[in-house]
Amino acid sequence: MFQLGKTIVSEDLIEKEFVCNLSACKGACCIDGDAGAPLEEEETKILEKIYPKVKPFLRKEGIDAIEKQGTWIKSDFGELETPLINDADCAYVIFDDKGTALCAIEEAYNQGLVDWKKPISCHLYPVRVKDFSEFSAVNYHKWEICDDACSLGKELQVPVYKFVKQALIRKFGQNWYDELEKMAEKHLKK
């Protein structure tokens, strides 16, 4: 672990390799698990605002889940999350013709209908950020459903922090990312 501004960053972001392999996993991170995507407070307001523009992209099951639960939920642990369809798929998940899970929010974004790509937790994955009072912990989340992504990352020699570069810049800013790159270069020379 090393400190970068008000963040504590796991060395795994530099040492581990990762490139999403959607053809292998079919977007399993959006349909597996026991909770929706983590949300930040301001993201709940964005979801409420953009829902009418995202709704046409959604499956009937997603619309039903959102209209029953809301555009976001608060978990039993007080965490803000996207709602789920039958405790499984994220309510915002859609599927392409090959059965790969995609994000309806991102589809609306790609078509220029909304200016918000998707929740930052989704954009950052496999990086997870946990906020504490004095700092934020920035960690790599290892999940067996992403084994193919780890293999592809190793084959292509892409460290986690480079794979999620745009998301890290979105979350922490360009200067923070530039400092992370410098730390990575120093770390790898050891």
Automatic annotation (TrEMBL):
<protein>
    <submittedName>
        <fullName>DUF3109 family protein</fullName>
    </submittedName>
</protein>
<dbReference type="Pfam" id="PF11307">
    <property type="entry name" value="DUF3109"/>
</dbReference>
<dbReference type="InterPro" id="IPR021458">
    <property type="entry name" value="Rv0495c"/>
</dbReference>
<comment type="similarity">
    <text>Belongs to the Rv0495c family.</text>
</comment>
